[in-house]
Amino acid sequence: MSISKIIETVVGDKRRWWQYKARVKKLPEHYRVAVEALERYVMYFGPSDGDSAASMYEDLADLFEQAAADGKLIREIVGEDPVEFAEIFLANYTGGGWVNRERTRLTSAIERAEEAGGGPRS
């Protein structure tokens, strides 16, 4: 797989990705730092299909642009637990994420094992 295809798979359409990055760059520094930290986190755990990923990043930029316009503090956006915020944010983009696929795979495997005789005994 080419580098271009890998990038497209992870972040979506490159044009949308660069538009997102340009939007983030325009944010005040403290918002930009927060967005970049969230970006790193969601890149690992977010959707693995490019279109969903691009939409997710665009929504992240929307959220922080609006917060900056409203003068909100970072903690007013992410709350006391940034990981919890990121997980709730990611829950809106479940399609295609490798974590979700592995969770589904694990659940299915356990269900098959139970059906094969490993379930509760009567």
Write a structural description.
The chain has seven helices and no strands. It is mainly α and 122 residues long. Helix 1 (3-11) packs across helix 4, helix 2 (14-25) runs parallel beside helix 4 and helix 3 packs across helix 6 (82-91).
Residue share in helix:
over 70%
Put simply, the count of helices is: 7
Q: Give the structural class.
A: mainly alpha
Strand content: under 5%
**Biggest sheet statistics:** none
Q: How many distinct beta strands?
A: 0
Average of the residue pLDDT scores = 85
End-to-end Cα distance, whole Å, is 52 Å
Summary of the model, kept short:
The chain has 122 residues and is mostly helical.
Name a few traits of the molecule.
mainly alpha; 7 helices; 122 residues; 0% strand
Which helices and strands, and how do they pair?
Elements (H helix, E strand, L loop, with lengths): L2 H9 L2 H12 L3 H17 L4 H21 L3 H5 L3 H10 L6 H21 L4
